[in-house]
User: Fold this.
Amino acid sequence: MRTTAKHKITNTEEFKQNLLSWAQQFDDVVWLDSNSKEFKENRKYSSYDAVLAVDAFTAIQTDYFNAFDKLKEYYTITKDWIFGYLTYDLKNDTETLKSNNDDGLAFADLYFFQPKKIFLIKGNVLETRYLKAVDDEFESDLKDIEQSNNLDVEQSNNSNPIKIKLKIHKDEYFNKVTKVLSHIHRGDIYEANFCQEFYAENTTINPLETYNKLNTISNAPFATFLKVRRNYLLSASPERYIKKEGTKVISQPIKGTAKRDPDHIMDSILKNDLVSDEKERSENIMIVDLVRNDLSQTATKGSVKVEELCKIYSFDQVHQMISTVVSEVKDTTSPIDIIKTTFPMGSMTGAPKISAMKIIEDLEETKRGLYSGSVGYISPNGDFDFNVVIRSILYNEANQYVSYSVGGAITAKSDPIMEYEECLVKAKAMRTVLEN
Assistant:
């Protein structure tokens, strides 16, 4: 079905830039880049340094209704690599929920495509997997890629500064967090991930240039450039949602954030404060319990284990507290079932999951869409890897609408002022990129 070839790369970083630049000619693009970084000291779950899939041969696009069943049918018929995204609003397929909030982005709820051309980079080796129908184009593509220079991308004109607006103003944010806290004190929930949107209307951006700037600032291990016709995701995500390797399933929720400091001593203090922060640890442990419960729905008996609890990893912008939960599944278990029973990821909902999702739907002002959803791929043998869409800029070119959202976990120990400040820390990279 696919022709596979291997090719040595002399300068990997330059090749990656050229490859992504070359990809802009296609309507369907998924670029996943670990920035050769995946948690630096924990690279045991890294399959590739970067992956590019372009040019849909077949595709599926649907709203949330029966979305996972439709995806399973599509994957079964295709029997090939598929790349795409799941929006947060697929919660309405797995549970009796709704999404009635304002939606300026208007992305489809689910989109996957079977790419004609796949590029897999590991170290200085490029592996290509072209569908038989286009495998005669490999040599000419490689020439074009090597000649494709990122500098060819038209630099945007910054004479029109982007005016970022808030969906929820500061006082209203405090009121809403207070309402979440009253739900917690009543015992409706233990924790809720409450999010807010920042947006700009009648705005055009250069997606590739914006992604490159964001990636330079954040250098994240689950960075993504996604293009579906005129809809774009430019993501500097530090978080993996879920991965399957053989019969092993790995989930790595993030809960707990501290800012970085250029001063080495101050930075160490901030990191140590995060290690010993009771509120952040309890947040993380609650989500670990939720993930264990989700994974147990497809796991073989007794196979769900916590490999790492509340470990601190440092990124260019922030320190993060990350846990790793693993399970084993039967080799007959459908990859779609594993995704469906764990979606949306607990780090973006709260606990218990369904009550938290109802409460945040009532209090948030924006339909989340692809924010706090996921982008990734499923391979023909059922392996997959998906990120969590956070620290991301979303852009609907046709509507000229630019958006980024940030959130935080509200628990009984939360202080609304501290929560607001954490949101601003998380928003910093996106704001810097858009406002220069």
Summary: The CA atoms of residues 100 and 367 lie 7 Å apart. DSSP finds eleven helices and 20 strands in the chain. The chain has a mean pLDDT of 94. The radius of gyration is 21 Å.
